[in-house]
């Protein structure tokens, strides 16, 4: 990982961020959330200084997206999305991203920053604990599927319609 940099999210990073998120996030585990261009844009629009990427000479290593306000608590920051390429894991990249995001949220007025980690994701939970997060509230998501509808086999998630347009814009803009 030569040339590691933690830099603010830019338009030129968005396509790689979307790709990494699609590979890493299991939105089926938390069906009340989704991963799309809208997910990135909402954070970037609301709190651009809390959205960071890690890059090296080979490209994107990871990203973090945060925003000020969580639910009805406008004084709480929310570190909602963080992802790393496999080659960046165990090298402090996630911790650097967490620090940049949290610093921005505290500077913007957050009295605390919260995050959530899927119950079986021990590596992410341990990384968050190493970065000063502690368990607060545990919630169990209970699901009741419709017994009259069978899920289609091989069903793929819906594609984000704005993605192709974004790619054209990002490729046309070579600003780092």
Pick out its properties.
176 residues, alpha+beta
Number of helices: 5
Largest sheet entry: 5 strands, mixed
Low-pLDDT windows of residues: none
Give the terminus-to-terminus CA distance.
19 Å
DSSP, total strands: 5
Gyration radius (Cα, Å) is: 17 Å
Indicate the percent of residues in helices: 25-40%
How confident is the prediction overall: mean pLDDT? Answer: 84
Shape: globular
Q: Helix and strand string, N-terminal first?
A: EHHEEEHEHH
Strand order of the largest sheet: 1-2-3-4-5
Question: In what range is the share of β-strand residues?
Answer: 15-25%
Explain what you see.
The protein has five helices and five strands; from the N terminus they run βααβββαβαα. The longest helix is centred in the middle third of the chain and has 15 residues, at 93-107. It is globular and about 55 Å long. The protein is an alpha+beta fold. β3 (59-70) and β4 (73-84) form a beta hairpin.
Topology at a glance:
Layout: E1 5-8, H1 14-24, H2 37-46, E2 51-56, E3 59-70, E4 73-84, H3 93-107, E5 112-114, H4 122-130, H5 163-172
Parallel strand pairs: 4-5
Antiparallel strand pairs: 1-2, 2-3, 3-4
């Amino acid at each position: 990982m030569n040339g590691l940099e933690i830099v603010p999210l830019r338009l030129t990073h968005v396509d790689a961020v979307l790709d990494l998120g699609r590979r890493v996030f299991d939105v089926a585990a938390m069906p009340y959330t989704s991963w799309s261009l809208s997910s990135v844009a909402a954070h970037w629009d609301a709190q651009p200084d809390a959205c960071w990427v890690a890059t090296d000479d080979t490209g994107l290593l990871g990203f973090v997206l945060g925003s000020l306000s969580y639910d009805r608590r406008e004084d709480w920051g929310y570190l909602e999305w963080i992802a790393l390429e496999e080659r960046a894991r165990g090298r402090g990249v996630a911790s650097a991203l967490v620090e940049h995001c949290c610093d921005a949220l505290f500077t913007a007025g957050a009295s605390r920053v919260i995050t959530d980690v899927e119950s079986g994701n021990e590596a992410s939970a341990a990384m968050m604990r190493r970065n000063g997060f502690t368990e607060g509230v545990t919630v169990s998501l209970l699901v009741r599927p419709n017994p009259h509808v069978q899920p289609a086999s091989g069903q793929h998630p819906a594609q984000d319609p704005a993605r192709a347009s974004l790619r054209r814009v990002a490729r046309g803009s070579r600003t780092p």
